[in-house]
Amino acid sequence: MERKRERREWPRETLPTSEVGIVYPKYDEDGQDAASKERGDTLLVHVFNRSEGGLLLESPLSFKVGSLLDMRIRLRHEESWMAFVGRVVRVDKSVTHDNYYVLGVELLPERERAGIPTHRVPTGKKGMSPCDLEFLMRAQLFDAISDEAKCLLLNCMTPRHFRAGERFIRQGNEGNTFYIVQEGSCVAHVEKDGREHPIARLRPGDIVGEIALLTGGPRTAHVDAETDVKLWSISRTQFDAVCKECPDVQNFLTELVTHRLCGETVTADRTVGKYVVNEMIGRGGWSIVYKGIHTDLNMPVAIKMLKHDLAMDPDFSEKFRDEAKIIAHLNHENIVKVYDIEELYRSIFIIMEYLDGRSLDRVLERMPRLPLSKVLDILFQVCAGLSYAHEQSIVHQDIKPGNIFIQPNDRVRIVDFGLASSPGNRDSDLPGTLFYMSPEQIEGEPVDARTDIYSLGITAFEMITGQRPFPEDNLTKLMDLHVREDVPDPRTLISDLPDELSNFIMHATERDPSARYKNIGEVLHDLVPLAEKMGVKRQPHLREQRKMMSLFLFYHDGQELQLKRLVENFSHEFNKIGGELRAAEFKDI
Known about the structure:
Layout: H1 2-9, E1 12-25, E2 27-28, E3 31-32, H2 34-39, E4 43-51, E5 54-59, E6 68-73, E7 82-93, E8 101-107, H3 110-113, H4 130-138, H5 147-155, E9 158-162, E10 167-169, E11 177-183, E12 186-192, E13 195-202, E14 207-208, H6 211-214, E15 222-225, E16 229-235, H7 236-245, H8 251-262, E17 271-272, E18 275-283, E19 287-294, E20 299-306, H9 308-311, H10 314-328, E21 338-344, E22 347-353, E23 358-359, H11 360-366, H12 372-391, E24 404-406, E25 412-414, H13 439-442, H14 449-465, H15 475-484, H16 499-508, H17 520-534, H18 560-576
Antiparallel strand pairs: 1-4, 1-6, 2-3, 4-5, 5-8, 6-7, 7-8, 9-16, 10-15, 11-14, 11-16, 12-13, 12-15, 17-18, 18-19, 19-20, 20-22, 21-22, 23-24, 24-25
């Protein structure tokens, strides 16, 4: 009883973030601890806090009270690994993670440790040493996941050793295991026409067999150990089980695909359907954008990939597919065009036109306050695109500078319709970006065209004043301000601002949607007179002008019947999207 009271009185150091430690379960009177039997020589745990005489751990396995644990822990502010020996005095189910246990461990004083042999850190084929853990924790592919996810993933990884000359991956075999090289080197060979051609040398830190996790398809090459090698492996089945327990682990797949599409490895297939990936050009909260090229048309494209923690969520992935369907039917000069959709590498890719230029948020980084004529030009073009989308019953829901793209010819394009929805739709997942989000979005109320107008008003406030209307140090407070406080009059910051622009911002950002502009037409009614007064040349066109394309087909008499069938089929499909085909025949060419 006295000992328990002492433990409660020990000063505790709560760690700002949990640390990952290594546990080497020891033997007790009944033989080896059950956790040790199941896991082998080592087990990774989270360390939440420590005191002079104890540690609080979170473990994926339970231990019996009284079990002895030999531990190696390196806290972030320590220069070296520290060895602890302790006894489990309390075991509870974790309240934050399913299938986890919280262990209270009493550290043994020096006099009680004297008769207990220190565990020998593993150096053979089983177990993980502190050096191993440091290597894996520093691996570039693990940067995208939390320490908690790393701990889960690394607990499933197994050390593998192969001697020089030993083949551990065979071309054509089923791919079910992924490897990270820690020591030594490997060589990949592609077998073709009965001969093997070396294509890559893999060294420490490189990945081998990643296709196993991405597609589960057959191996595309042989891999041999060039020297004695040490690798860490995990099977697709194990990985999928960890993903179910902690979706954060799925971000590892996102990094794996990016490594494959943009890395230097010669063996990697950098194609996504008909498109070849050249480089990564952008990374957002829920997607990564690559620059690519259409292999047949030699046309540059932008390829947007959904991050895997979302792509493997059926509900969100369906929303992402909806983006392609939505913008595929939008044909307007102020809206980005989408060409295709591909599902590959356990993710979804949207193929869009590649845009030269910069997003408005990048422009505002260099020029926080834009000239008023430039502001009006941008507003008119965004209004034209939004008016067209609203006519198609599409609400963007995420209008902000990051989704307004300005091309070198000053043409403005609206991008990222991934959060778009039909008017009246409710979405309790808080779509959009909080800095520009309307009160009805924050409160989960129905959205319509007025939602986009509110966000456009906040964007205009930033373009004109060089700052956003509400302080942003606390996101919870920010949401409350959007719901409960009026946007301040921008004339408090820009005293000579024309009344028309000030009135537009105040009217567009009314908290009550019924008090805002009802549609884009009302917005333009207030802004066009100012544009004419200031000599802004570009005038908004709410309805897109008709365009014409010429296409010349050269053929012989014997091809005429087949050509007519093709033209009829094309005309039928073209009419479905509102186009009109007119054909003329020329003789003697």
